[in-house]
């Protein structure tokens, strides 16, 4: 039993940051009908809200994936012709199984956010390497492009959805995933258009 009033701690309530503490107190005041619903707390951070960030990332990745895939497919067709395109897709699809198994294991063992950032960095390196390969050895660059871009796209999508799945509970997933899939489709359409 407390004698008198407990001391006030200067630490954030429940380990929350000041921004989260403000959101929590605003929501609590709304529940007690002390604030009208039109009052919205002002965020001090210029970054997009946590709800919008995955949508922006997915739209950008989808648009980039379509652009990169279309570009490498066109380069391959120009350099090698349509006769060998099926073989290139077969090799790319066969490589997807071990690559996705390796990335999946990496995602299970590591910090998923850092793995996703590492895969983005690796994707940038691969794309820059393909541009250089196209300048130095166009036929080799076109052949590698079809195979590698599909690997990069598949690994980024896997890492994105695994990271998102870690962030959402079942109820949030049921609401968010259809919207995100639609936004990804729009990003892909913008990348292809």
Short description:
75% of the residues lie in helices and 0% in strands.
Give a structural overview.
Helices cover 75% and strands 0% of the residues. The model has no long low-confidence stretch (mean pLDDT 81). α2 packs antiparallel against α5 (138-167), α3 (85-109) packs parallel to α5 (138-167) and α4 packs antiparallel against α5 (138-167). The chain starts with 17 loop residues before the first helix and ends with a helix. The chain has 193 residues and is mainly α.
Blueprint (SSEs and pairs):
Layout: H1 18-31, H2 53-80, H3 85-109, H4 112-136, H5 138-167, H6 170-192
Please name the defining characteristics of this protein.
0% strand; single chain; mainly alpha; 6 helices; 193 residues
